[in-house]
Structure formats: structure tokens, C-alpha cells
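Good morning C.,

I know you're traveling, so I'll keep this short. The sequence:
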Amino acid sequence: MRERRLRLREMFVPLSHPPGHAQVDFGEALAVIGGEERKVHFFAMDLPHSDACFVKAYPAETSEAFCDGHIAAFDFFGGVPLSILYDPLRQHHPGGGQDLGRRHAPAHTGVQRAAVPLSF
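The C-alpha cells, ready to paste straight into the viewer:
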């Protein structure tokens, strides 16, 4: 019985986020624009150490939105993080991100997860 109780006990792993690292993802939401409800795609960059977050909406999840979102976030935060962790972003594309063509596919298509060190 004691072994069973130990197996069923909840376990928690504390999360630790060192400063200077970011996470990026795209999402979808409904927004009211000009009195009309529309689906928008939003770029989100998070600095988990400080819980700071930047979000910008776009009409579609494109390479241009991906790049513009980064530039806008860097401007908002006043700098560039040491690294960026990307969640799988293809899931928001019709067809799961398979061969969407250069115009619609983000530069990271095919990447499952990536930590990108940034140095300038």
C-alpha cells in the first residue's frame, strides 16, 4: 500500500529560467477590427526570467510577420536576447506547414524546437 501511495503522489519540477533568454511562438485569436470579428495571428516573445512579454497581431503567419515580430520585440525590450527557444510554429498553418511555398512558409519550417544563440 505504501508503495502505491508513493507512486500516485504528485511531483513537481521547479522551473528555472536564466536571464537573457527568450521564447517565441505564434498563436491565433479572434479580434474585433472596425466592428468586424476576424481571426488574427499573433507573434509572442516571452522573457521567462522576468515574465516580460511582447505580443503583436498580424493578418497571417508569414515569414514577414515572423521577422517583423522579432524586430518589434527587440525594439520593445531594448535589446536582443542571448538565445531564443522556438516552439513548433508550423501547427498554425493550414496543412500543418508541409510545403506551403516560399511566400507563406516561415523561415523555420521543419524545425521541431530550436535554441538559437544570438551573438553580434
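Safe travels,
E.
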